[in-house]
What does this fold into?
Amino acid sequence: MRNVSRKHEGHRLAQLNEIVYQVGNYDAMALAMTLGLDDYFRREYTKFLNNTREKFLRILDVGCGTGRNVPYILSKYKDVNIVLVDISFSSLKIALEKYRGSTNIDYVCCSAELMCLREGSIDNVLSSYMLRHVDIAKFVRELKFITHRFSRIVIVDFWRSHVAISMMLLILHLAIIVPFLSLVFSPRSFCAYVNLWKFLPNLPDPIGICKVFSRLGNVKMLSFYNMIYVWVIQRG
Ligand SMILES: C[S@@+](CC[C@H](N)C(=O)[O-])C[C@H]1O[C@@H](n2cnc3c(N)ncnc32)[C@H](O)[C@@H]1O
It folds into this structure.
């Protein structure tokens, strides 16, 4: 895995995200750039969260952004404590505004590579569209520490496709359609969206990612249109 360049690229991407949170409109762009399919994707991948032990659940959403997964988690589980983690203080501020009245949500500003959470304290982990930002080996080490042997981990991201045509379509979408959409829905963060496609060629192969995740337990990989990948990991 290209650790050094990935680390640098991930750091740059996180800075671009910060611009979106501070001067742009992340939520409008999330809907626009998925061509209205954001709700469908979120409903589908949150189905993979589980509660094998039939008890009160603690679910971590790491790289939570503005907390877009929260309504989908709450529609599935009532008796739950959601821990929202993000490296961006600005994104957590937006999430806090949205869910101000909720007493079952905690907010933690820290890196996914070094989370300040207790050993074995998390039942389910959800992470959407964050993986490309982090050093995957460090993230996996952290996940191993904070989860327990019955935990389920669901990780989702746009990824370098293993199918050539899907890869070309995704690059076209990110390089041309997304910048155009940002001019309409989030013009002040155009500079962030125009650079978004550049991370794709540097990502490791999605099947290689399964091997890294298999250090945690059983891994299943699914995809939406061979562009958005979902890794479902059952700790064991
Ligand atoms: C594309 S946004 C996705 C936000 C949200 N999960 C969603 O589905 O809408 C990626 C998020 O990952 C966060 N992030 C990037 N690097 C991170 C890191 N090392 N630790 C925690 N969060 C990170 C960014 O701040 C940003 O909020």
The radius of gyration is 17 Å.
